[in-house]
Design brief:
Blueprint lengths: L7 H76 L9 H25 L8 H18 L2
Helix pairs in contact: 1-2, 1-3
Length: 145
């Protein structure tokens, strides 16, 4: 019956299959590792780009808010002068509030514009997309008879 003997033909096929399967797993894990490293590098670059854009935008919004509050303070000061029957003059602190508000509004608008334009010309995850397209083409090519 052959309980003590090994069938040589099935043994050769099974060891060859094991080696091929092992090589396939090694290649697949190396492939995934390389893709993961590429993705990590590009994700770090994307974080820098979007972090810079986010920083400019948030700083611009803060400047706009400060400018808005300074305008409110200036208007309240002018209304107080109007209702006190004193002369309306921008030579006091209300004029300084309006000047600083104008400065903040201008700076905020510039920072927001810079934030919107920074990093637009850079394509995010370009290499990863190209590699995935190559993989798709290779899979399609392998599927063709």
């Amino acid at each position: 019956m052959g309980f003590g003997r090994k069938n040589s033909s099935s043994d050769e096929n099974s060891s060859g299959l094991k080696e091929e399967l092992g090589a396939l797993v090694d290649q697949a894990s190396n492939h995934a590792l390389v893709r993961g490293e590429l993705f990590a590098i590009e994700a770090k670059e994307a974080a820098e780009i979007y972090g810079r854009r986010f920083g400019f935008t948030i700083t611009g919004l803060i400047c706009l808010a400060i400018g808005y509050f300074l305008i409110l303070a200036g208007v309240i000061g002018l209304l107080g002068s109007y209702f006190d029957d004193s002369s309306l003059s921008l030579a006091n602190w209300t004029g300084a509030a309006f000047a600083i508000a104008l400065l903040h509004l201008t700076l905020g608008a510039v920072l927001i514009k810079v934030g919107r334009k920074s990093g637009k010309e850079i394509r995010i995850f370009e290499y990863t997309r190209n590699e995935l397209k190559k993989d798709q083409q290779w899979i399609r090519q392998e599927k063709k008879p």
